[in-house]
Design a protein that fits this description.
18 helices, single chain
Length: 416
């Protein structure tokens, strides 16, 4: 196996851990709210505190990965987020839980931008779409596989001990990553000279990278601002699956904790499949046309599927029907992620960490909105319908933003 694919194993395992540590709070909602006497709206603020911290530190963390490299950046942030995961289990009230989850979100903020910088350094342009699909699918696979196990752990050990155990797991990944990874393939002791040459030759910079005076990754050039903005809709939709789906299914359909864990895992597994298909479709589109704009087709289809699934949820009367339509929703929303990341990595080039951090920051604000929108809308209308209709509108808006990307855009990859 070529060494660059071993890199993907490391980043895939990291993204699995990333979302396992996030989803614990959702699975533990009943236990935490009961012991700390939290209302649903207070718990919504706890969930959104994570998303706010995650949003605010995206760009600084992305800049760190560009300056110091993904090896040191990822090792440092995993240590930090593992510490705050463990501290969540020590919360004694609403305020302390709010602070710990905000800090946890801030610590996790650099993970995906640093992974994106590693992908830029280690993979030729023709492989970046599927690479991002694999990495992003790890976030869904991790959450899906973990939910039944977390439900068992919470029932067996309690929520405080479960957070402590999950905090310790991150340190194992840090040791392996720091020992085995290097920032660039040219510096790795185990890579062949032929593979290193292939990677370096395929590390194609955007046209504007050759003209620094004209290149501004934060500008509107090449439709970048459209791609950054549409990420709000993607994350608004998916974050519901990560935060409120577990308690929503449990309350609406009267399920046990373990039953809810299995049911919630199904849409997350569908999301992993959506990431894979989105990644393969993205690479195919760019190989065929040589244009970043061709990524729009994959994203538009994904947003359309997400909207269809959400409309189906409005009339779901059984948990099976609800889970089927929610799986279509998450599958479609996750199809939009690989083209989004591939576009930003290629436009960003050597500043891929910063550019992807900008996009992920907007997405995190979408997640922040979800964490509060669901409980407040549900409280106001005694129904999930207003929330689902809001998500439908956002997904249709995301599709429209992709449709406006200039067709002539050639910022991204050249055909393989």
């Amino acid at each position: 196996m070529e060494r660059r694919y071993i890199l993907l194993v490391g980043t895939f395992l990291l993204t699995m851990l990333l979302y396992v540590d996030r989803v614990v709070i959702s699975a533990a909602k009943g236990l935490i709210s009961g012991e700390l006497q939290l209302s649903d709206t207070q718990f919504g603020w706890v969930i959104s505190a994570f998303a706010l911290g995650y949003a605010l530190f995206q760009v600084p963390a992305g800049q760190l990965s560009d300056r110091f490299g993904p090896r040191k950046t990822l090792a440092g942030i995993v240590i930090l987020w593992s510490m705050f995961t463990a501290l969540t289990g020590a919360a004694w009230g609403f305020l302390s839980l709010l602070v710990f989850r905000f800090a946890f979100g801030g610590a996790e903020a650099g993970a995906m931008p640093a992974c994106a910088k590693a992908v830029y350094n280690w993979l030729p342009t023709s492989e970046r779409g599927i690479a991002q699909g694999i990495n992003l699918s790890g976030t869904r696979v991790g959450a899906a596989l973990a939910l039944p196990g977390l439900a068992w752990m919470l029932s067996s050990f309690g929520w405080r001990q479960t957070f402590l155990i999950m905090g310790a797991a991150g340190l194992l990944w840090v040791g392996a990553w720091y020992a085995l990874f290097r920032d660039r393939p040219e510096d790795h002791w185990a890579i062949s000279e032929a593979e290193a040459r292939k990677i370096v030759a395929g590390r194609t910079l955007p046209t504007t990278q050759a003209e620094p005076t004209k290149h501004d990754p934060g500008s509107h050039q090449g439709g970048l601002w459209l791609v950054v903005t549409q990420y709000f809709a993607s994350c608004f939709t998916f974050f519901f699956a990560l935060s409120w789906l577990f308690p929503y299914l449990q309350t609406t359909f009267g399920l046990t904790t373990v039953e809810t864990g299995f049911m919630t895992a199904i849409p997350l597994a569908a999301g992993a499949a959506g990431n894979w298909l989105g990644g393969v479709g993205s690479d195919f589109a760019v190989r065929r046309t040589g244009r970043a704009a061709s990524l729009r087709h994959v994203a538009i289809v994904g947003f359309a599927l997400a909207a269809i699934g959400l409309v189906g949820c409005l009339n779901a009367e059984t948990v099976i029907v609800a889970v089927v339509f929610l799986s279509i929703t998450v599958f479609g929303a996750d199809m939009t992620l690989p083209p989004s990341w591939a576009f930003c990595i290629d436009v960003g080039g050597e500043r891929a960490g910063t550019v992807t951090g900008q996009m992920n920051m907007v997405g995190a604000f979408g997640a922040f909105a979800t964490g509060l929108a669901f409980p407040y809308l549900y409280s106001a209308f005694s129904s999930a319908t207003p929330f689902f209709l809001t998500a439908v509108a956002l997904n249709l808006g995301g599709a429209m933003l992709w449709a406006f990307i200039p067709r002539s855009n050639r910022h991204a990859r050249q055909p393989a």
